[in-house]
Write a structure and sequence with these properties.
Strand content: 25-35%
Mean pLDDT: 88
Distance between the termini: 34 Å
Low-confidence stretches: 1-15
Radius of gyration: 18 Å
Order of helices and strands: HEEEEHHHHHEEEEHE
Shape: globular
Helix content: 25-40%
Structural class: alpha+beta
Number of helices: 7
Largest sheet: 9 strands, antiparallel
């Protein structure tokens, strides 16, 4: 993760007015669409099957499939053709935890963004610490709005298995209120599925939404060059792209089923 030491600006640079309006309109449509869905929370003992795919310029495509119980208490995967089931003591960090974290958010955009700031902080150092290891933040946030967006994008990414429709709608409404958010059509995820990209950092990273359901289907990021990371003081440069996708997700009754 790249982290600079420059003094952070309190607000992102304004994007072109038409683009900001387009992003706000699209996110408003997304909020209305997901809010109309009936709640469909899986049972604690149901299993979530997921196939994750990642591509990167110059690298071999990675594909992983696994199963996790919705309450996070058990995980499973195939090893040499044999299904291995691993019991998890706490269940924390599983799909239910992500579902509950979304459900616990306040309902107004201002309150959601305030909650985001309490988690990610308000300084460059805070943002670098929070974003280290984050799937959605290849580049550490440089502004408050960027940090707020990355926090919300991480919540959406983690809720790949299931999410409360009302909470999803509230998150999209909050994203629409972040200055500098832009959208791009015609993007594809790691398995070639078309998506609408949403970004708060000028397109260094894109959160990809399905153009019909507005659920998260992937992430596209510009890959930071090794020199930018390893050599102190080097200018920020990029070397290709990284694309990730939740290629398949299903609620099943037992591990090993798809």
């Amino acid at each position: 993760m790249f982290g600079g030491t420059a003094t952070p600006s309190k607000h992102p640079r304004p994007a072109p007015a038409g683009q900001v309006s387009l992003a706000a309109r699209m996110l408003t449509v997304a909020a209305r669409t997901v809010a109309a869905e009936p709640p469909a929370r899986p049972g604690d003992r149901q299993w979530v099957y997921a196939r994750f795919v990642q591509t990167q310029t110059g690298q071999v495509t990675q594909s992983d499939e696994n199963w996790i119980r919705f309450d996070g208490r058990d995980q499973a995967y195939f090893l040499n053709g044999q299904l291995i089931v691993v019991h998890e003591t706490s269940g924390s960090g599983g799909p239910l935890s992500s579902y509950d974290e979304l459900a616990a958010l306040p309902s107004t955009p201002a309150a959601i963004l305030a909650a985001a700031r309490r988690v990610v902080g308000t300084t460059q150092r805070d943002w670098e610490d929070w974003s280290s290891g984050s799937a959605v933040a290849e580049l550490a946030p440089k502004t408050v709005g960027d940090a707020e967006f990355d926090y919300l994008a991480q919540l959406l990414w983690d809720a790949y298995a299931a999410a409360p429709p009302a909470a999803l709608a509230h998150v999209y409404q909050a994203m629409a209120d972040i200055p500098g958010v832009t959208v791009a059509h015609g993007l594809t995820n790691a398995v070639g599925r078309a998506g609408i990209g949403v970004s708060a950092n000028g397109g260094v990273s894109w959160l990809l939404l399905d153009p019909r359901t507005y659920r998260v289907i992937g992430l596209n990021e510009r890959a930071i060059s090794p020199r930018s990371v390893k050599v102190k003081g080097s200018p920020l440069t990029f070397s290709g792209t990284v694309s990730m996708a939740w290629a398949d997700v299903a609620i099943v009754d037992a591990p090993g089923r798809r």
